[in-house]
Amino acid sequence: MLNKTLTNTVVISFYTLLSIFFTWPLLVHLHEGFISPDTMGDSSSYIWDVYIFKNNIANNNPLFHTEKVLSPIGGNLWMHGYMPGMCSFSLLFKNNFLGMNLYIMLHFILSAFGAYLLSMYLNKNKLISFIIGAAFSFSAYKMLRLTEHYTLVLTATIPFYILCFLKAFDFSTKSFLPVIISKKHFYLCILLGFLTILNDYYATFYLLYFSFAWFAFYKFYPYWINLSRIKKTGMLLILFIGMHLIIEPLVIHGFDDKGGIWWGGNMLAFFIPNDNSWLYNNASLEPLTSIAYRGMHNLENQLFLGYSIIFVGIILLYNFFKNNLPKETAPWIFITAIFFLLATPIIYFGSHKIIYSPTAIIHFIPFFNNIRCNTRTVMMIELTLPIIAGYFWAQTIARKPNILYSYALPVLLLFYMIVEFKPKPYNLLVNADAPAIYDAVAKSPNNKVLIMPTGVNDGLHHIGNFNNLEHFYQTIHKKSITGGYLSRVSDKVFESYQNDSIMNTLILLSENANYPFSIPSQSQITTFNNTFNVDMYLIKPDYINTNAEKYIIVLLKGKSFVITEKDGFKLYELK
User: Fold this and answer.
1) What DSSP state is assigned to residue 402?
2) Which of 176, 230, 287, 363 could cross-link to 260 by cystine, CB 3.0-4.6 Å?
3) Degrees to nearest 5, angle at CA 23 with 17 and 26
């Protein structure tokens, strides 16, 4: 027991060092900043989440609603990626940055340790299990998503859930439903599922997919294994072609798919290094990247597995066709294939469309189609594929127990994996980066600011030109703002902004600063003022001396106000 505790302590210590290494320079800014692009990105929303969560608790407001943005209606935070888990953890700290950043670091460490324990349960090899933990927690996928999508790196519950799931049920019985063989692990599964919901609904769905796929495998595999190769091939062809013939008309006729990311998931993208790779120069791979991303070079299109993982995958594929893989890998192979298909709803290779994946039907199933970004299933592939490799490597070592297979090659693989997964040093935003004008907003006795440009954004719709960095700046000035961004915004909010003639004009001026506006009537101005109650207008440098500023001056006609100018910004503040 003491030896096991000591081993686990050493393993966790090494994973802690790797977490510091991979997220550098976050460690030296834990208390004052966060990882983010320097212009516009989703990462500002997460420090804002912590601020809103604490603000709602302090003011006895509903936890999952806010009127600090999208005023006056406000927004529902249930599907925002609100992360009440991280926000609750941050309650332990007065400093919001510290709470958020420590929570992220903790998830990297526990994701690795959880995958290590899962692998130890399956193959009993410490070195292999350590590599699997590192491969999952510090994958190229997660290192890229850390630049903007914090929810997608909060994966600690995933390996622990799978470990408890495997210990909780026996799927080998003749009964249709699996038999619970450990109530303790069954209840732990429920607890871990709940904790996953508190972090990320994508990960929650992936655990559901894993559970159903594992169940399906043990129900159908006994029949599948007895089929001839011709029958297996025929059934797969019928499945793929049949589902293609169902899915394609749904796409053509515009059935609701919640804005599914059909353009993501090109097979070629698995082989192209991500933009933030420290080792590889992505720019040198043009025009290959243009083909792989089909002209849409963004975060969701980048699926690089790592050449170390790809190399291992090729070895596994070869041995799969040679029937050399341990029988224990069968359910893991099935689940890995499912997640590959989920990541590629349209199977492309390069610029060539091949066929719709059968799993693409999920984009048309209500509720389930809220999982719009199919490429995010790569996070599961980077756990299941190394697990398969771990089984195979443990079998190889058992057959050839020498230094080369037991130590030299695993250590070499680990070293190369660390080098190729290492991202470029992350850009951080700190309070000192905020324009000085926001201090003036904070000191104002007024309560609500309209920032030009303004707008309303969510994952499906976009009007105006709202910059998500305003969420970060709101944590400094703490005033309510019109406009805003949430992952899901109700149609009622969009309609309220577009139906008000003055707000609609402000949105059009946000999209084009010199949009030719009409002078509003006094009744329109009165309606606007009574609806939105704006008592400050902050104009950004690119909108100074444009029609946007002229229109705001029209709205202020006859009112008493003061003007503050700093660093090219201009603040109109009603008295």
Assistant:
1) S
2) 363
3) 105
What is the C-alpha separation between 355 and 247, in angstroms, rounded? 10
Could you tell me if 570 and 550 are in contact, meaning their C-beta atoms sit under 8 angstroms apart?
no
CA count, 13 A, side-chain hemisphere, 268: 17
Cα distance between residue 560 and residue 573, in whole Å: 9
Q: How many CB atoms lie within 10 A of CB 239?
A: 11
Rounded Cα distance, 423 and 153, in Å: 14
pLDDT confidence of residue 506: 95
Q: Is residue 62 part of a domain?
A: no
Alpha-carbon distance 385 to 335, whole Å? 9
In a domain, 48, yes or no: no
SS3 447: coil
Residue at 372 is within a domain: yes
- Residue 390 and residue 455 in one domain: no
The Cα–Cα gap between 548 and 517 comes to: 9
Both 366 and 288 in one domain: the answer is: yes
CA nearest to 388, candidates 162, 211, 128, 178:
128
Residue 397 sits in the same domain as residue 453: no
d(CA 76, CA 18): 37
Residue 304 vs residues 149, 200, 307, 312, 399: alpha-carbon distances, Å: 16, 22, 8, 14, 32
- Which pLDDT score is estimated for 204? 93
For 169-202, letters b (16+ CB in 10 Å) and e give: bebeeeeeebeeeeeebbebbeebbebbebbbbb
* Mean pLDDT by groups of 10 residues along the chain of 575 residues: 85 97 94 84 87 92 88 81 84 95 97 97 94 96 92 95 96 84 96 93 93 93 89 93 92 81 78 89 74 75 90 88 86 95 84 86 86 89 94 87 86 94 92 92 95 89 90 94 88 90 95 93 93 94 95 92 93 92
The Cα-based distances of 373 to 260, 280, 301, 510 in angstroms read 7, 25, 9, 28
Alpha-carbon distances of 78 from 7, 70, 117, 217, 483, rounded to whole Å: 40, 15, 32, 33, 18
- For residue 465, the enclosing domain spans 434-574
Question: What 3-state DSSP class applies to 456?
Answer: strand
Regarding whether 264 and 189 lie in a shared domain, the answer is yes
Between CA 498 and CA 505 the distance in angstroms is: 9
